[in-house]
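Table 4 source record.
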Amino acid sequence: MAFTLSTTKTFTNINCSSKPSNITPFKPLKLPLFWPWQKVKMGPLSVSPMGFGTWAWGNQLLWGYQTSMDDQLQQAFELALQKGINLFDTADSYGTGRLNGQSERLLGKFIEESQAIKGKQNEVVIATKFAAYPWRLTSGQFVNACRASLDRLQIDQLGIGQLHWSTANYAPLQELVLWDGLVAMYEKGLVRAVGVSNYGPQQLVKIHDYLKTRGVPLCSAQVQFSLLSMGKEQQEIKSVCDELGIRLISYSPLGLGMLTGKYSSSKLPTGPRSLLFRQILPGLEPLLVALREIAKKRGKTMPQVAINWCICKGTVPIPGIKSVRHVEDNLGALGWRLTNDEQLQLEYAAEESPRSMIQNIFQTR
């Protein structure tokens, strides 16, 4: 469901002198799609129209995390809260090696020490994802995973408990057990709502219908969705979400950074991302040109335009943040909207680009 705000009144300039004058009508005033402090519905929850992802918090391999970054991460989190962002996405698997779960631990620490929400911690919506590890073979084990996340986050109840991926492709019997685990954590009051991640359209309908028979509404579906990931299957997922009243959360709205304009074939990021960028970036010129053109015309940045496109499509994007600068720039995606023509321009440019984002290997059909 997309939320838009507009006015239908037409205002006029009236010349009150005795001489005849022409009355010049103004164009209908259109308010921005969302301001930062406005909220959208996500099941029983009210969340900011954009959340922030914390995949990088604790991930040394892909994002170069070091514990020395914790202060700047906390400053970024505090600024986000001050500006009205209340949705933060994480996972029990975020963090590499001995830092597994670090993202949740940092979020818990930052919430506990926050001055922006002192006494109002319940207003923060934490959406965490539980990995479908092969050793999680009972619903009780999945509930225990939820309790462990709550301990790391230092909170009593999650906003959204999400199944990180489906096992339907390789362990279909485990899939039903994990669904029962979502039901159990909901019935025990450990989560206010449940969601899924990396579910394709067919499997999304199946879990929605199963949860419905158990009296548990499916609140959200988190998938890779961006101008780099807007193919037929992603559009089908969005259509299913719209039909069933599920809010789509779009992760990687900037294509791991490829849509920021910071990188080129001769300027690649460090680490494993460089391999992916080397394959895809050379074919993105039509899309990057369109993003740059609209950004310049609007006085915005390329990331702001790319994120705004996701919002215009009725999704809640969750770009990752690692610094105050990231927060400030991403906030610039709110409070305005792309025109229909601008959206089409971007979509045509994306279709003209011969390369698109590689889909998550865990996404089912």
